[in-house]
Amino acid sequence: MSKRRSGENVTDPGETHLKVEERETHAAGVKAVVIAAKHALPRAGVVRTMRSFLKLNQADGFDCMSCAWPDPDPEHRHTAEFCENGAKAVAEEADRRRADPAFFATHTIPALDQQSEWWLGQQGRITEPLVRRPGSDHYEPISWDAAFRLIADELKSLSSPDEAIFYTSGRASNEVAFAYQLFSRAFGTNNLPDCSNMCHESTSVALAESIGIGKASVSMRDVYDAELIVIAGQNPGTNHPRMLSALEIAKRRGAKIVAINPLREAGLINFRNPQEVKGIVGTGVDIADDYLQIKLGGDLALFQAVGSLLVEWDALDHDFIDTHTTGFADWAAHVAQVDHELVVEATGLSWEQITGFAERLRASKGTVWCWAMGITQHRNGVATIKEIVNLALAHGDIGKRGAGLFPVRGHSNVQGDRTMGIWERPPAKFLDALQQEFDFDPPREHGLDTVEAIRAMRDDKAHVFIGLGGNFLQAAPDTDITSQALRNCRLTVHISTKLNRSHLHTGTTALILPTLGRTEKDVRGGKEQFVTVEDSVCSVHASRGPLAPASTSLLSETAIICGIAEATLGDKYGIRWSAMANDYDVVREHISRVVAGCEDYTQRVDRPGGFVMPHPPRDSRTFETKSGLAEFAVSPIELLQVPKGCLLLQTMRSHDQFNTTIYGLDDRYRGIHNGRRVVFLHREDIAAAGFNNGDHVDLIGHWDGDEIERVAADFRIVEYDTPRGSAAAYYPETNPLVPLDSTAVGSNTPTSKAVVISLRPVQAVAPVAPGAGRPGADEGGQDEVGADEGHKRFPQPEHLS
Q1: Phi and psi dihedrals of 248, rounded to 5?
Q2: Do residues 26 and 678 make contact, with C-beta atoms less than 8 angstroms apart?
Q3: Max Cα–Cα distance, the chain, nearest Å
Q4: What is the pLDDT of residues 550-600, one digit of tens each?
Q5: How many beta carbons lie within 10 A of that of residue 156, not counting itself?
Q6: How far, in Å, CA of 122 to CA of 47, rounded?
Q7: Which residue ranges does the record annotate as region Disordered (predicted)?
Q8: CA distance linking residue 127 with residue 103, whole number of Å
Q9: How far apart are alpha carbons 715 and 775 in whole angstroms?
């Protein structure tokens, strides 16, 4: 173990050094390699860096803990089968720095909460189980057995199992996900919210209702062979960088690409592959043939307009429509009435641009439809995805080579977790299989999703929160309300590798249970274990870490969950918790009999490249919907009314972060360096609000559902190429502006891409999100405004009066 205890000597530059420079017009290249090395080597060292990088995304190695982009077939993988952000993710986990008991004895919880999210992550790996006892402002060590007993005693004291919340992050393996949902249901509740509730839940709902399964209908070969690829509401250069290599292959084979995104993003403009000569010394490959800079919230109108043109031109696959679908006539009649002027107003695009997109689609014999959170996190997210499906059905783009639906998942195993039963609304057939395997009747009533769980904790209806990975406070909407909800609990438990904000807003009693990471060897029961994951195209494969654990006191996630379960339930139902903890083959035996498509699981998953889960629409053009056919949907276009003087804000990642993990303070593709508190605006919107480029403003949230004024304080205005009326800023700094009750219809996903805001000059004192409101607190300084002052009512801004 390194002698360095923590990153306490790390200096946070803060916003005073923020620089705005020229934006980049290409992604990756040699610079990405250099930056990845500069990030990894100081944290992990040369030996650990090389040992981990050479096994990253390899058939005999471990799966990247960042995005869920699929791996190429084993015989086609590069030696360096990872991207810049994957390298950063590995470096963060392989960090030689340690947040040990001495660190927590030195730092109080309130003092830690004054630090930035970036600073917290730089303190290194947590080495021992920790407890914060009632009334204390410190974490102190606790044994594993004592921690498990504490959790068990609190769970057993609840008046109802439904007073417990079992949250899951998307990086949890299939093995621990299966054990976790089994524990929750054996305990007696379906309260299994997960990160999917906040990102791709709109996808899961829309696809399940339209085609009978909430997953992608494509393989990687389909992406390579597509004639047209549509990328909507997605920034692959930052969020899924390895996708650019696949797009490069498709472009070389003649594919056209249409990008639909409010901001002009470097990764959608040009890609310079650092593993190709042309990417090093040449100009790379241009990505988007057409770049549609759509206004926030205008996607549904765009897709319906395209549908109206396909119907008008009779550019339809009638054989597919007649044989495999229902509802076409109603949809065709609906889109035939689309108002062109309304579409132009809603999208900010010209009718010529829309027609050009439709002509691309008409000419294509195979189209792959890609989307991400820019589509899902709107009030009409479910309807918009159904409209994408409508176009795919009208064109016969499901179940054929070089075509299909491709929701690109943002977390490494969020799809696998859902397959394993992490869902608050499990299907009856899954519960039936669980009952048959374990001889108990699991609860049948739906549980709480993420938004509902926050409400339950806020309203004192739930009293124990267990978080399997992730940074719940910073990932969730309405940060102040979520903070209060967590603090209302009697017990909060976080299973983590590093310190994060959620550890600092705790219940009366709090536990941090440190776990092994993907990069680390997992030896249990006298043998080296492996885990499994599922990527965005339903491929399931093994993952084995090569590094020695950060501490001899760490346990795997599977061992932790089984330990809690055994302490809580004992031998109830005869479930072999100890056997599952010590040999993951036992877990996989259960999976093979409970989860459809996972027969002979251990044997199939341990082959190079693993296996692909069944997908009826893709495999046989069969659809397990209510009608037994793929279903066209009719959705009205609702033009989002933004009050005069207000803008529509999308929250987003910088290039130096993955979800809530902040790797650094740069976003070089967008020209931002040494800071994060910026808001990107069109020059005319800046002038209309009475400000200049470079001014500092408070962002004021507006939501008709309550009288609370939400404020994110002190952001620097950055003039940017974005449609009029659309703004963008980074989360989690702007999550305090996302109202808990503003969610997508049908999925309850927070509308993080459609937040109504106004701008006002920076106030001397303003409400803050916990640890992240004012620049002093967010970037490492001290802040006199406490977290309890988060929600206050302020007078209406002058320019809105």
Answers
A1: -60, -45
A2: no
A3: 71
A4: 999 999 999 999 999 999 999 999 999 999 999 999 999 999 999 999 999
A5: 12
A6: 20
A7: 767-801
A8: 10
A9: 8
* Token code pair at residue 215: 């997953």
pLDDT range class, residue 797, cuts 50, 70, 90: very low
Question: How would DSSP label each residue in 14-37?
Answer: -GGG-EE-PPPSSEESHHHHHHHH
More confident residue, 486 or 641: 486
Report d(CA 357, CA 354) in Å as an integer.
5
**Residue corresponding to tokens 């549980």:** 447
Which pair of structure tokens corresponds to residue 168? 């899951």
Residue 4 has a pLDDT of 40
Tokens coding 167: 């949250």
Q: Is the peptide bond before 442 cis (omega within 30 degrees of 0)?
A: no
> What are the CA-CA distances from residue 727 to residues 302, 434, 649 (Å)?
20, 46, 4
Of the candidates 586, 451, 536, which has an alpha carbon nearest to the alpha carbon of residue 222?
Answer: 536
Asked if 695 contacts 717 with a C-beta cutoff of 8 angstroms, the reply is: yes
Query: 520 pairs with which residues across the strands?
Result: 547
Least confident of 48-62, 687-701, 720-734: 48-62
Q: Are 799 and 758 in contact (CB under 8 A)?
A: yes
% residues pLDDT > 70 (the chain): 93
Average pLDDT for residues 176-190, to the nearest whole number? 98
Q: Are 47 and 529 in contact (CB under 8 A)?
A: no
CA distances from 497 to 103, 139, 555 (A): 15, 15, 11
Contact 152, 452 (CB under 8 A): no
Phi, psi dihedrals of residue 539, rounded to the nearest 5°: -85, 125
All structural domains of the chain, each given as residue ranges with its CATH number in brackets, are: 124-197+413-519+552-583 (3.40.50.740), 201-407 (3.40.228.10), 647-800 (2.40.40.20)
Tokens representing 728 are: 């963008």
- Taking the CA atoms of residue 660, residue 661, residue 664 and residue 668 in that order, the dihedral angle to the nearest 10 degrees is -60
Read off the pLDDT of residues 604-628 as tens digits, 9 standing for 90 and up. 998 999 999 999 999 999 999 999 9
Helices (H) and strands (E) in the chain, counts: 31, 33
Percent with pLDDT over 90 in the chain: 79
- Alpha carbons 236 and 231: distance in angstroms, whole number: 9
Backbone phi, then psi, for 20, in 5-degree steps? Answer: -115, 120
Specify the residue for token string 């005693």. Answer: 153
Strands (E), 237-317: 256-260, 270-272, 285-286, 290-292
CB 270 within 8 A of CB 287: yes
